[in-house]
Specification:
With about 120 residues, this protein is mainly alpha-helical. The chain is built from five helices and three strands; from the N terminus they run αβααββαα.
């Protein structure tokens, strides 16, 4: 398993939950069903991370509110962390154009979040 190998090499993980467009367009899930699905995915990954946790690295579990999880739709070329989404929403509420960043900038968010978490330790 790739996650287990990464943890044994003390690589701090970030997560991207892809194909979010399918929840809306294809599966037409209700908001609570989407939330439960995402929550299950995160919990399953965090159980694995807790199982192989290394005391020298500390807590490597991922949390949306920490910015260590991105939500994406690769087919449509978008991704965001909750932090980035809040920034876009804040601009929209202030009357500025809520134009999203380029795809490369969106996808870089999880990596920068991991760097911020590592620097905080």
């Amino acid at each position: 398993m790739v996650l287990r190998q990464a943890l044994t090499e003390r690589i701090i993980p970030v997560m991207t939950i892809n194909k979010r467009d399918r929840s809306f367009m294809e599966l037409q899930l209700e908001p609570d069903e989407m939330y439960q699905s995402i929550q299950r995915i995160i919990e399953n990954a965090n159980v694995i991370m807790a199982t192989y946790q290394d005391e020298k690295v500390g807590d490597v579990q991922v949390y949306p509110e920490k910015g260590t999880i991105a939500f994406s739709a690769g087919l449509h070329g978008w991704a965001f962390t909750l932090t980035r989404f809040a920034q876009i929403d804040e601009r929209a509420l202030a009357g500025a154009s809520p134009s999203p960043p380029s795809v490369g900038a969106s996808m870089a968010a999880p990596a920068s979040a991991a760097a911020e978490c590592k620097a905080a330790r």
